[in-house]
Amino acid sequence: AAAREDALVSGLNPEQREAVTTTEGPVLVLSGAGTGKTRVLTTRLAYILNKPLAQPWQCLAVTFTNRAAREMRERLAAMIGPQAEAVWLGTFHSLCVRMLRRHPEAVGLRSGFTILDTDDQMRLLKQLMEQASFDPKKQPAQMLMGIIQRWKDRAYLPDKIPQDEARAGGGSKVVQFYTDYQARLRELNACDFGDLLLLCVVMFQSHPEILAEYQDRFRYILVDEYQDTNVAQYLWLRLLARKYKNICCVGDDDQSIYSWRGAEVGNILKFDQDFPGAKIVRLERNYRSTPTILRAASHLIRNNQGRLGKELRAPGVAEEGAKIHVRGVWSQDDEARWLVEEIEALQRAGENLNAMAILVRAGFQTREFEERLITTGINYRVIGGPRFYERMEIRDALAYLRLLVSPDDDLAFERVVNKPKRGLGEATLQMLHVSARALGKPLYATAAELVQTDELKPKARAALRDFVEGMERWKALVDHMDLPELVRTVVEESGYAEMWRRDKTPEAPGRLENLEELYGAVGEYETLVQFLEHISLVMENEAKSAEEPGVTLMTLHAAKGLEFDVVFLPGWEEEIFPSKRSLEENGQAALEEERRLAYVGLTRARKRVYISFAASRRIYNQWVNTVPSRFVDELPPDCVEQQSESGLYGAGFAESGGAWGSTWDDGWGGRRKSSKVVPGDGTSWNVKAREASSGFGLGERVFHQKFGYGTITAVEDDKLAVQFDKAGLKKVLAGFVEAA
Ligand code: ATP
Ligand code: MG
Description:
By secondary structure, the chain is an alpha/beta fold. Helices cover 44% and strands 15% of the residues.
């Protein structure tokens, strides 16, 4: 054990060693990116178990993501072997679930309780809103959900909300609603995601014996990414650590990037007060990045006011390293082309694709790079979300387009016929399927016929007819409208975009951005068919093995804690990064959080950073002038090597600065057409006396399941007009009647 202990700590610098070996009492490691905080935490755990100061199940370690938990467990296993399995190691949420599952009755739940996903949660909320007679126009469900979530993040039960907070949330009516919502959840033996921490804290507070059991158990508590904990998580930790006080938190205030999810960087400042005598360790040696990258990151983050302040040094052995490559290009297409060429060049120089990452501000930005990587044949993976063309909203939109081009695509039909909800219930859809089988026709063609009959209830029939009419109208536009305009028309007129606009879940704005990105993407193709062919090629490419080396694509938020040899940071333009939203929100706080994101991005790199910005972006079917991000100017010139496409600065960004957000017509704008085309009345019933393929003839008596007996008064193809004895004149499908 002693020999192993030596091995464990021998590679550490003195401050790191201190953080590892000061096992008793509270310790706060506060230091910048890449200084070895996560490594210290893992080593500390190994050190404790190696001594041993505690058994594995007496140690509690918290990470920010499940992936980080997995990694930490693997590292730990490599250091001390299979004991690593028994450590309580996971995210706050997974650890809370584990505790609640052991004593569900303590918080009014029963064993096997369910954890609602966002959809279920919204549905429940809307039901309750109706009962409580909330006006969803004034107080949308999503807003209420946000308020409740905020209260939960702060660990407030309905009866414990401080007055000013209650007022800020909408007053007693909203508080009452929160009460009812919680009660309903308990009735359903369910909880939502935010409940996990809240209920755990409540359980500790109301059941001292349960708390005591955990306090006795967890002799050592370790927390990574401490700067992004919220109040509930903080209380949870404080309660658990109260007995032994052996808690070690590591964090970096400059990397606090989740305030929008309730994280409070102030928790770092309070640590000292809550755990008097806490040892504060500062690690200043960075082992990850070159001095050049470090200087650039430090210089940039110095523009933030609200920070604790610290400097980073490289260990001194590393060479200065390559300058940060800042590249200005004319357009987003050029940006993707240039970036992927750089990746190829690096690959030729011997870099592994696994060591490269493209980090973007928002999810929609991956599309351009994905396409370019695919055409070039470079393997890639998107972390933290599906690839662009696999995202739900994109697949939905594509299904509409597929159906336009091939009306017999039943899968596409099923995907979109009731999306957005058109009030087409199970019964209607079943009817459609039965009819399609009876007619031997695709679903869409069947729907087109059914709406001319009385087989469906009037409401369903009207809804389906709207859908069919829409499709017919858009079909007529296919060869006459610019593709971006066409796709937008379909997505808008179908009500699909509106569905996401109404949805106020945290993912909804990103989905709308992805749709906007899609409009831009189709603009690169001549015809819809060409575009869809391209997509099927893209999708085929998805099958490539995840084991193969590949470039990583992800958002800056998802990149926290990770490191790569080479990091690409595209899209450094005002209104993209910093984001439009952060700029609209006046005040420094939002902007400073964006800057911390930039800091996180830069400090992910070991050797090289490439930053780029384009002078114009295609937004819908217009090119929009863009301005380089202020963060570009905040990089120290001596760390930067700037290269721009020829002529880019000739015209001068000074001028374009005045044209902020203005658009120029690229020649398409003038050709925009009205998208409303009124079709001929395709629903009129042609009363022609002719023998149909159905084999029924005029005047024949028939029987229909729903309408009973009647006499045929008109025949057309597969449809009949029947004068029913009781139900009156109806149009029905021939397949649904039998000779009487
Ligand atoms: P972040 O703030 O980004 O989460 P961090 O402070 O957690 O960073 P780590 O990820 O633990 O930093 O370490 C950064 C890199 O430096 C890792 O590759 C790690 O293995 C290495 N490292 C840390 N300490 C040492 C050391 N004493 N000697 C050599 N390498 C080290
Ligand atoms: Mg870390």
